[in-house]
Specification:
The chain has helices spanning 5-13, 17-47, 51-58, 62-70, 77-86. By secondary structure, the protein is mainly α. It has one domain (5-86): lambda repressor-like DNA-binding domains (434 Repressor (Amino-terminal Domain), Orthogonal Bundle), CATH 1.10.260.40.
Length: 112
């Protein structure tokens, strides 16, 4: 049987438009974090640093850095920025074209 219980359940939940939108948003965010961590790991390897050496350079526990590069985690932005800096890189936010960006909902609430 190709589909297990969780696959069938997700397929059923994906029929709900609100669930589908939230699921796709979460997947896109996870993909972005994964891409950043892959790029940092590529820079680490190119720089010749072991994970333990890189951890020492930014004052983190080596096991923390190993986990960042080997597991699906949600790293703290300060840690990601420290890693980038130690590897001679910087973080940058790039606005995507409006055709790629999710629709922005306007809030009916006003902010004072």
């Amino acid at each position: 049987m190709r589909n297990g219980y969780y696959q069938r359940r997700r397929d059923q939940e994906m029929e709900d438009p609100e669930f589908r939108v939230e699921y796709e948003r979460a997947r896109a965010e996870i993909a972005q974090v994964d891409a950043i961590m892959r790029q940092l790991d590529t820079l680490r390897v190119a720089s010749g640093y072991s994970k333990a050496e890189l951890a020492r350079r930014i004052g983190k526990n080596p096991s923390t850095i190993r986990r960042l590069f080997t597991a699906e985690v949600n790293p703290e932005l300060m840690t990601v920025a420290a890693l980038a800096s130690a590897l001679g890189a910087r973080l940058e936010i790039v606005e995507v074209a409006s055709s790629e960006a999710p629709s922005r909902r306007r809030s009916s609430r006003s902010v004072a």
